[in-house]
């Protein structure tokens, strides 16, 4: 084999790996995993077993990747019609649907095996329910048939929080369900901001996203209403659940204030795609930093630091 042929073969192998990697929509996965980590941190009171975290992340990654791959197969027809998605592996023809399906099934099997064997059965079953809900309910039943697809479909993206809690405790508590609810309520304003940005593309392929079937004003109004609900809900972790404390509360307050401001500005200018883009990008940062705050607040070191500060304050007052 000459050098040119060897180089071409090497490039082809790399392209195959890259195509299958792209099938999983890898940019979505970290955001889902950080909700898992946050839930695990609170469930373990900040004393998280690194191996348990790693195994849960592996299982969660494979489950999410499986669901996204099946979504790529199912939506390949509309992906081909949109310039933004036309070059994805399946609509472009670089990966055959059958091969992608085999890949998705393999990922689901790996996810279930890792979680069931090394974590617990409840977390494995929850991960599988996430795949089933995302594919069966959101992608098949809702996405092409109702403008409120993402409202109900958002439950699929919130399930990783339940997986994380179950991984640590092998149960589900009110706190776990609240974290689920926070992600669930955050999803519509996050996704509708994106829909405002690419409204014309959704209209072109007949996907009835909210701004397509109503208008930008109605969509911005819904974004504002959901934001008014999700921001207060984040403080329920402090009271009445007492799952998080002052550090989380301070960060959640600042992040929430910025979110409300951006949603309000968009409400005043619903046709401004740059404002929609700004809200969309911030919503991602918001969820990542909010979950990071949950983790930091749960750490024993944080609790010790707060106790020390309070003790010093009492000495100064005293």
UniProtKB/TrEMBL annotation:
EC number: 2.5.1.141
CDD domains associated with the record: PT_UbiA_Cox10
Transmembrane segments: 28-45, 51-74, 95-115, 121-141, 148-168, 174-198, 223-241, 247-267, 279-296
Keyword Protein biosynthesis: no
Keyword Transmembrane helix: yes
Superkingdom of this protein's organism: Bacteria
UniProt subcellular location: Cell membrane
Catalytic activity: heme b + (2E,6E)-farnesyl diphosphate + H2O = Fe(II)-heme o + diphosphate
Biochemical pathway: Porphyrin-containing compound metabolism; heme O biosynthesis; heme O from protoheme: step 1/1
One CC-aspect GO term: plasma membrane
Alphabetically ordered keywords of this record: Cell membrane, Heme biosynthesis, Membrane, Transferase, Transmembrane, Transmembrane helix
GO aspect biological process, one term: heme O biosynthetic process
Primary enzyme class: transferase
GO molecular function terms noted in the UniProt entry: protoheme IX farnesyltransferase activity
Membrane topology: Multi-pass membrane protein
HAMAP family tied to this protein: CyoE_CtaB
NCBIfam families assigned: cyoE_ctaB, PRK04375.1-2
Recorded family membership: Belongs to the UbiA prenyltransferase family. Protoheme IX farnesyltransferase subfamily.
Function: Converts heme B (protoheme IX) to heme O by substitution of the vinyl group on carbon 2 of heme B porphyrin ring with a hydroxyethyl farnesyl side group.
Misc. comment: Carbon 2 of the heme B porphyrin ring is defined according to the Fischer nomenclature.
Protein name from the UniProt record: Protoheme IX farnesyltransferase
Organism: Hassallia byssoidea VB512170
Originating gene: ctaB
